[in-house]
């Protein structure tokens, strides 16, 4: 069975950046299950896996535009220190959910803590990165109606409702 829309695909994967550092991997853990065509993995990877079958392996290079997008310099901005609770212990690398002008939740990471201002970055941590995936396709099956209605894969390695 080939990978196509509405198939549940089970993969093992390793994601590296341009200098070969491992950013993410399923090695040593559970494989990833996703519904193909449901935008659950980055677009460049989803496109590259289309038409492949269980047992195949592939190496995929994904440009930022087909991955987590370009880095937006305007995504880095300062928040007054007094916007945080006085007792909050702020450290570089910690993340929290802020709000934009329209009241939308925006996850941000702290990149610098000064006396009066905290510099945060709303870019995805992998924005602007070229992504290097190695993927082993373990299984391809039809999604059940229930999975399609829920928008996620069920079963071992997938979503559990227990
Ligand atoms: Zn479900």
Protein architecture, described:
A hairpin with a 5-residue loop joins strand 1 and strand 2 (22-25). This protein is elongated. The protein contains 2 helices and 9 strands; from the N terminus they run E-E-E-H-E-E-E-E-E-E-H. It has helices spanning 43-49, 145-150; strands spanning 7-16, 22-25, 32-35, 57-62, 76-80, 95-99, 105-113, 117-121, 131-142. It has 162 residues and is mainly β. It has 2 domains: 7-68 and 126-150, Chitinase A, domain 3; 73-121, Thrombin, subunit H (Beta Barrel), CATH 2.40.10.330. Strands 1, 2, 3, 4 and 9 form a 5-stranded antiparallel β-sheet that branches. Zinc ion binds at residues 150, 152, 154, 159, 161. Zinc ion (ZN) binds at residues 150, 152, 154, 159, 161.
Number of self-contained structural domains:
2
What is the count of DSSP helices, taking H or I runs of 4+ residues?
Answer: 2
- Distance between the ends: 30 Å
Q: Specify the CATH architecture of the largest domain.
A: Roll
- Please summarize the sheet with the most strands: 5 strands, antiparallel
Q: What is the beta-strand fraction?
A: 35-45%
Element order: H for helix, E for strand: EEEHEEEEEEH
């Amino acid at each position: 069975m080939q990978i196509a829309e509405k198939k549940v695909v089970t993969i093992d994967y390793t994601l590296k950046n341009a200098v070969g550092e491992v950013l993410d991997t399923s090695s040593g853990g559970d494989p990833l299950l996703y519904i193909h065509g449901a935008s659950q993995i980055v677009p460049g990877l989803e496109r590259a896996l289309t038409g492949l079958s269980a047992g195949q392996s592939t190496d995929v290079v994904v440009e930022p535009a087909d991955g987590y997008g370009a880095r937006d310099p305007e995504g880095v901005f300062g928040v007054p220190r007094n916007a945080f609770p006085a007792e909050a212990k702020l450290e570089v690398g910690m993340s929290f959910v802020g709000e934009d002008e329209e009241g939308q939740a925006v996850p941000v990471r702290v990149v610098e803590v000064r006396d009066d201002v905290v510099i945060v970055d709303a870019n995805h941590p992998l924005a602007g990165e070229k992504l290097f995936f190695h993927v082993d396709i373990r299984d391809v099956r039809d999604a059940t109606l229930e999975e399609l209605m829920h928008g996620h894969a069920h079963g071992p390695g997938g979503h559990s409702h227990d």
